[in-house]
Amino acid sequence: MLGRTLREVSVALKRGQVTPTELCQKCLALIQKTKFLNAYITVSEEAALKQAEASEKRYKKGQSLGDLDGIPVAVKDNFSTTGIETTCASNMLKGYVPPYNATVVQKLLDQGALLMGKTNLDEFAMGSGSTDGVFGPVKNPWSYSKQYREKRKQKPRDENDSDWLITGGSSGGSAAAVSAFTCFAALGSDTGGSTRNPAAHCGLIGFKPSYGLVSRHGLIPLVNSMDVPGILTRCVDDTAIVLGVLAGHDPKDSTTVQGPVNSFLLPSLTDVSKLCIGIPKEYLVPELSPEVRSLWSKAADLFDSEGAKVKEVSLPHTCYSIVCYHVLCTSEVASNMARFDGLEYGHRCDIDISTEAMYATTRREGFNDVVRGRILSGNFFLLKENYEDYFIKAQKVRRLIANDFVNVFNSGVDVLLTPTTLREAVPYLEFIQEDNRTRSAQDDIFTQAVNMAGLPAVNIPVALSRQGLPIGLQFIGPAFCDQQLLTVAKWFEQQVQFPVIQLEELMDDCSSVLANEKLASVSLKQQ
Amino acid sequence: MAVPTLRCGFSGSRWTFALVDRGCRHRTVATFNWIRGQSSVAQQPLHTAQKPRKGAQEWAAVVGLEIHAQISSNSKLFSGAEVRFAAPPNSLVSFFDASLPGTLPVLNRRCVEAAVMTGLALNCHINQKSLFDRKHYFYADLPAGYQITQQRLPIAVNGNLAYSICVGKQQREITKTVRVKQIQLEQDSGKSLHDDLRSQTLVDLNRAEGQLRVDANVSVHHPGEPLGVRTEVKNLNSIRFLAKAIDYEIQRQISELENGGEILNETRSFDYKLGCTVPMRDKEGKQDYRFMPEPNLPPLLLYDSTSLPAGADPQQVIDIDRIRETLPELPSETRARLVQQYGMLPEHSFTLLNEVGLLEFFQNVIKETRAEPKKVVSWVLNTFLGYLKQQNLAVSESPVPPSALAELLDLLHTRAISSAAAKQVFEELWKSPGKPPAQIVSEKQLGLLQDREALEELCRATLDGHPQVVRDVKGGNPRAINKLIGLVRKATQGRAEPALIKQILEKQLSSPAP
């Protein structure tokens, strides 16, 4: 049952094949079993069971609230949740229990979803590995998959367990939670690729909506002008269901768009001959792994062979994107982090000789090196003497980058097809050889420009690498054409038939839980 | 990307807006001869009357004011939390006001409308697009670590306000203009309450206290030379202290420069007890605010009748022209109307408007009385205002309502009482509120002496009692009759009309004694 998609289990709930409480208990058992993945910071077992009970009553009365009623979901620990600790994986917010729900969390709960817990991340979502949080790194469930272990001739879980892979990040906890079947959908956040990147490494759909489509109220910000709540699911239709619940104007977020939101139910495309797929030539970088490159080109060929128009396009300012992102991101970080001073909430140090000393020590104790480094850079860029040279210039470049996309879409391109990451997930020990900044710069290369332009984008898992690890590709659409983008993504998903992760050996006694899994054929075989 | 829609009306705000007014006042003072001006900055003359001593160089002072005025609204600028004066500390604090992580600002429509109205009243150019910025500094009563304001592109710019002052012994009226650089919407910070004894600071995030706060930028220079280095005197919360601080600061800068010192570009505070300005500690002084755009608020778009999109929802847009229509009569227009309509002197129109509630009082009296407007002006400005001032009362605290004064003036108008008697009635009205003037007149027998025979008898008796004065009149000094009139009036306790007395006296003087 747990291996099913959200839509499938929703049907099973409606037919009474499973009850919300059974489903909730199974997920809780699996969360317990996969605790070593470190996907969850807080498991809200009691609340989830209560929600399940309420949901069960509704089903018995035939008053289901909809597709999400009784469905276990997880939420990244940077969304405010009433009565549930919200830490951002930082010492600064350890013990902080918000008095309100983020709008997206409230919307999920209003639809009857069961909140299983809060998932792990890089501290304040600053990172691309989910390795830099105060609760430790998240382990990629694929590290323990049959597909990966067989290639490496390893047992499902070694005694020393030292060569596990990172999930990517910063929403790695949410990705691991969905990937390991502990829930059917999870919320991530996406500022520079934080939802799409771990989705690519964990073989999931990772969707970043258009900026302004989904409320940020209650999302503890990284970069307000780029942050969006992201959705992680196991298939595109599930993403569309969740998006349908989350999208829409929120009076509490002035940057959400007014007006009615259309349904996000996705038609099944049978004909792609009227589609025009753009392949940005600047995304073909030397660092791109040959495997990803090859799959990217096969995907283009697939569209071509099905009658779509596939053309090379140019996004000429791409090469300035990462530097520009760095300036804007750190500047907003410096500003957003200013509120964490130990006075109103969160961590406060013991020093009380002066307010300034208290601030300084609180912030040194509360933030890790990555956060402090970004605050320092950001404040440097915002200094009066530097503002014109850095912030203003970066804003101008941001506009040029956004215009690049506008120009391409105006030239008749419907969606862009790009890699999501340079390569598949790497082992943790390899990942930490480089510092967070270098890693982020490399890992966000294909994803952050989309955030600067406010566009919708989605990672679709395509195939397993020779090592048996997921590789994903990214589709990017014009602003507020989220449904059209997901429709194309759904067609592509159906063509590639990405394999389901095989965790039976790891979760021996859970095998019955995953009974109806079957390994689908991989249509895009490696050469 | 931020989508430019106006978010209004969902929550209100207690908030502050700043009226920034820089480089607007110039004062010239003579070396060594500067004399403290009057109590109010706004009423001080542009040039001091003193001429510079021979050989001494003239100084000019430049003053710019940054005025923080609280807008009267039901809720705060960016949150739905209520605004209420003297509410218990931290009782009106929303999650946003406490800067809980993840909360976002939502602009209060009422505040935007008030800002536009203020801009129109001050002859500003209203920017149809304005932006919000973050101004960063660490302070205990600033929980977000930044303040949301409008630094780069404020809601209104380039305005002016004309005002008049009376100078010299003749109280000659001159009109002056103060330039308004910009009007910006700005979030108020919290309030710190320092407990020095226990070295603790308590913070109140209600942010609904002081309604007016002014920072004054002051510099001095020799006319014709570049402007001097300026200092900023912060947190002045009354007009009187503002004037004192500016006067002091100008003096201080002049003597500093004349003694070979230099002026530092620094932030100072005004010591109310000592009456002088002192430098602020560094951390409260000059700092880099690291301004950046507020990413959570889209550009604020306003419309006028030409730019209003067809079919726009009136709840979602703000129409400048519609606000202009609701603008009340501005003080300058009111004054012009008063002068034109009632023939009053311009300085009287100023007094009527400068005293809160006085204009309304005056208009209510006018409405209910048949007395001449000039008479009403005189009574309201001299008698009524005199009593108020003497007892330090506001118009609203007056024991005499407009209707009572109107009735009193009617009695005067119909010659039921004399002017002198009217003064007595007024005094009685003040002492025993609620008593109708007519009743006072009859109780105190203040009615005008209507009995001609009785009056003639009184006149005759007066003439008989003062033969010397009578001789004077008859001897060719017609003005001596005034003395006789005065004597008769005194005898009637002011209840007879002087003109009538004069008429009777003249008649009696010209006829032979019986």
From TrEMBL, chain A:
An example GO biological process term is: mitochondrial translation
Q: Which gene encodes it?
A: QRSL1
Domain of life where this protein originates? Eukaryota
Instruction: Name the major location.
Output: mitochondrion
Location of the protein in the cell: Mitochondrion
UniProt keyword annotations, A-Z? ATP-binding, Ligase, Mitochondrion, Nucleotide-binding, Protein biosynthesis
Could you give one GO CC term from the UniProt record? mitochondrion
Protein name, please? Answer: Glutamyl-tRNA(Gln) amidotransferase subunit A, mitochondrial
User: Which species is this record about?
Assistant: Oryctolagus cuniculus (Rabbit)
Q: Which PANTHER family match?
A: GLUTAMYL-TRNA(GLN) AMIDOTRANSFERASE SUBUNIT A, MITOCHONDRIAL, TRANSAMIDASE
Limits of the Amidase domain: 24-486
* Pfam family of the protein (one): Amidase
- EC number, as in UniProt: 6.3.5.7
Q: Does the keyword Transcription regulation apply?
A: no
Subunit text = Subunit of the heterotrimeric GatCAB amidotransferase (AdT) complex, composed of A (QRSL1), B (GATB) and C (GATC) subunits.
Note down the stretches annotated as region Disordered.
Answer: 146-166
Record family assignment = Belongs to the amidase family. GatA subfamily.
Specify whether Ligase is a keyword of the entry: yes
TrEMBL record, chain B:
Q: What is its EC number?
A: 6.3.5.-
The subcellular localization recorded is:
Mitochondrion
**SMART domains named in the record:** GatB_Yqey (SM00845)
Biological process per Gene Ontology, one example term: glutaminyl-tRNAGln biosynthesis via transamidation
Q: Name one GO molecular function term.
A: ATP binding
Listed under catalytic activity are: L-aspartyl-tRNA(Asn) + L-glutamine + ATP + H2O = L-asparaginyl-tRNA(Asn) + L-glutamate + ADP + phosphate + 2 H(+); L-glutamyl-tRNA(Gln) + L-glutamine + ATP + H2O = L-glutaminyl-tRNA(Gln) + L-glutamate + ADP + phosphate + H(+)
**Could you tell me which residue ranges the Asn/Gln amidotransferase domain spans?**
360-509
InterPro entries linked: Asn/Gln-tRNA_amidoTrfase_suB/E (IPR017959), Asn/Gln-tRNA_Trfase_suB/E_cat (IPR006075), Asn/Gln_amidotransferase (IPR018027), Asn/Gln_tRNA_amidoTrase-B-like (IPR003789), GatB (IPR004413), GatB_Yqey_C_2 (IPR023168), Gln_synth/guanido_kin_cat_dom (IPR014746)
Concerning Pfam families, the annotation shows:
GatB_N (PF02934), GatB_Yqey (PF02637)
Keywords associated with the record: ATP-binding, Ligase, Mitochondrion, Nucleotide-binding, Protein biosynthesis, Transit peptide
Q: Which GO terms describe its cellular component?
A: glutamyl-tRNA(Gln) amidotransferase complex; mitochondrion
UniProt xrefs under PANTHER family: GLUTAMYL-TRNA GLN AMIDOTRANSFERASE SUBUNIT B MITOCHONDRIAL AND PROKARYOTIC PET112-RELATED, GLUTAMYL-TRNA(GLN) AMIDOTRANSFERASE SUBUNIT B, MITOCHONDRIAL
User: What does this gene product do?
Assistant: Allows the formation of correctly charged Gln-tRNA(Gln) through the transamidation of misacylated Glu-tRNA(Gln) in the mitochondria. The reaction takes place in the presence of glutamine and ATP through an activated gamma-phospho-Glu-tRNA(Gln).
Q: How does it assemble?
A: Subunit of the heterotrimeric GatCAB amidotransferase (AdT) complex, composed of A (QRSL1), B (GATB) and C (GATC) subunits.
Q: Which family does it belong to?
A: Belongs to the GatB/GatE family. GatB subfamily.
Protein name per its UniProtKB record: Glutamyl-tRNA(Gln) amidotransferase subunit B, mitochondrial
Q: Which organism is it from?
A: Oryctolagus cuniculus (Rabbit)
